[in-house]
Amino acid sequence: MPFIRITSNKEITKKDANFMTMELGVGIECIEGKTEAWLMLEFKGDALMAFGGSDAPCAMVEVDLFGAASEADKSAFTNSVCHIVNFVLDIPPERIYVRYLETDTWGYNHTNF
Hints:
The chain has 2 helices and 6 strands. By secondary structure, the protein is of the alpha/beta class. It has a single domain (3-105), classed as Macrophage Migration Inhibitory Factor. The strands form 2 sheets. Strands 2-1-3-4 form a 4-stranded mixed sheet, covered by helices on one side. A two-stranded antiparallel ribbon has the order 5-6.
């Protein structure tokens, strides 16, 4: 049950979001037990953002996970995310943050897991 939010100060078009949806659906499988079937995504473009004192293109990628993931899996997924965001939005990887939040309780369909 991963949820990924990508926020950027660059425009994210519907075409961009659709392409990243496909690519992240494949990439999420870097994390053991995670699949596209449970992946929810949110894209926020044109945000007022600055990184390192500059408003040059940047992105914040938040990855919420039900349960924990290994450091190796998170590293592999970070690499995938940076490639995808760089390719689609032309944001250099050194201007992309990826944050992981792991939780032991996740609600879905009237119940908690």
